[in-house]
Amino acid sequence: MKAPVLFLLASSVAATVAFVACSSPTTCICTQLDAGACTESDAAADAAADGEAPDASDGGVGDGSSDSAAIDAGPTIAPYPRMFVGSLHTCIADARRIGCVGWNYYGQLGNGQLQRDEDQDSRAFAINPLASDFMSGTGNFTHSCFITAPGDVSCMGDDRIGAVGSHAGPVTRPQKVAGISGVKVIDSGKGFNCAIAANDQVLCWGWNAHGELGNGSNDEFNPTPTPVQNLGPAKALAVGDSHACAVLKDGSVWCWGETVEAFIVKDEALNTHVPIQIAPAGSADSIAAGVSFTCIVKDGAVRCLGDNQYGTLGTFPDVPYSRTFVPVTGVSDVRAITVGNSHTCVSFGAAGSVACWGNNDLGQTGLGGQGTVRIPALVTTPAGETNPLSSVVELSAQYNHTCAKTAGGRIFCWGDNSHAQLATGATVPPFYTQPIELKLP
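User: That's the sequence. What structure does it adopt?
Assistant: Structure tokens below.
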């Protein structure tokens, strides 16, 4: 009998976010997708802070054309923005605007340009108007996607394998994805995306070399959002480099694409093109993961499985890897969770404190130094502040940097800054081991 196959619930080299359930891998304090008021109230608060009622005359998402004209900086972002990060870029948004900063080789910032030289990284936020309220977003190395009310998806960046939804080459302006609506959650992987749409159905599009789309097909890619095969109603989602997972309404966890066993023994025959169950009903409220590990949250407790090379399982005593979920040491009452390449951060407790663990070669755990962190540790006091980071209601990580938003609307980021993704206006220093406040336009 074949041994059970476990998965690397990764969020890509994201995230999204990885995000918690209500925002995709990765950013709202809610832990149940059913708490739809989370995104609705945030959008309303953003509009109120902006001092204006939503109005379609504010402009809208573009058609994805590669116009290279100079971009108008547009109106200032409201003081209470939403945010999400890609592998080497960071994006912010209020109710009717979105702006991104950092690496733009494939047009993933949506500013109408392809910035192919390293010295052409976008070092200031370029603002795009939105036709309807921003809900949440996700990013990867080569593309970005976001949701606007009432559940439309727009993407920008590399579309050679259909990640932007059209298989049309570089898309340098936000382009609406056809064939999907009512989207509540979205997450991106290596050249593909998955989303929870109307009727809590999961659909995926883009790259499919390892079964990432979960539709039973062996097609190399598919730019059209396609339902994942034989999967029940979902409440949370996590997408990795080459795999994806969903938490169903009953709390069970199902995954497809590259598996943990395939990763450990380097045997692609162990991948699966259709979902298989890896955790029973009642196991998870939300989910997030890195390249070779995954973490689930249930009733505020975190458990992880997979590779532990960089301490990503957050457990003691240390083990090289685990095929079963093991409890994370020293953290409870988790309110939000996000992961990058090989690190994890959580917001926990009534104070909204932040703890991180895992790889820390570029300061991505925010502890004020470098070196692997094998169990959760509190993020250090932000630069220029006297009190520790607290009141955090959103978290978003990808690759080697992390951002956190407080209840007061301030955004702090730390980790890799090699492409000015921390909005410092420069690539020096190339990383920050201490949180710094994001400079908003």
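The CA atoms of residues 364 and 415 lie 4 Å apart.
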